[in-house]
Specification:
60% helix, 2 domains, alpha+beta, 9 helices, 5 strands, 183 residues
Length: 183
């Protein structure tokens, strides 16, 4: 592999690591001064292959919309979460987000009824983070998750598939918690 190509791959890797969010081929192309998006995609695919072959705890995901994101593999997250920086969400808003994601589309009033009066504050936080949005249907305000939410948690953008993924995560999490209590 030519040195120039190695340097471009290293820059792409640095950008994905530093951003902490999904990046488009166009934004990656601007970093390495490459006009051909196919060439950029080829370099990203090389990087993805390198991480897979190394059996790394870090993975680069290609999202359905064509963006790329570097993330820790889910199986390592529970074991190292104590080393992670400040939590993005405390448990209250996270539980509210989980409820909205699983029940969506769900009315704001129903979320507040089930989650309690603090749900309105949680909803405000979640909207500011771009994880959920409100949609008016008559006098009712329905809450739904955004593509930002799906990307951040590596979930499918299709709501039906997302709900199945969430159910699997919730059942695995419950089993993990039970195993930890027994041990």
């Amino acid at each position: 592999m030519p040195q120039d190509e190695k340097q471009k791959i290293a820059l792409i890797e640095a950008a994905l690591y530093a951003s902490g969010k999904p990046l488009t081929l166009k934004s990656l192309a601007s970093i390495i001064n490459e006009k051909k998006l196919k060439e950029v995609e080829k370099l990203v695919e090389c990087l993805i292959k390198r991480y897979k072959e190394a059996e790394s705890s870090i993975q680069i995901y290609k999202l359905k919309d064509g963006r790329f994101m570097m993330k820790l593999k889910p199986e390592y997250l529970l074991k190292v979460k104590k080393f992670c920086g400040k939590k993005l969400l405390s448990s209250g808003p996270l539980k509210t987000l989980s409820f909205i994601a699983y029940k969506q589309p769900v009315s704001k009033a129903y979320v507040a009824k089930v989650r309690g009066k603090h749900a309105y504050i949680h909803i405000k936080i979640l909207k500011e983070l771009g994880f959920i949005y409100e949609e008016k249907m008559g006098k009712t305000k329905l809450l739904k998750t955004t593509s930002t939410f799906a990307d951040a948690f590596n979930l499918d953008h299709d709501i039906k598939i997302m709900k199945k993924q969430l159910m699997k995560i919730f059942s695995e999490l419950t089993q993990t918690q039970l195993n930890q209590r027994e041990g």
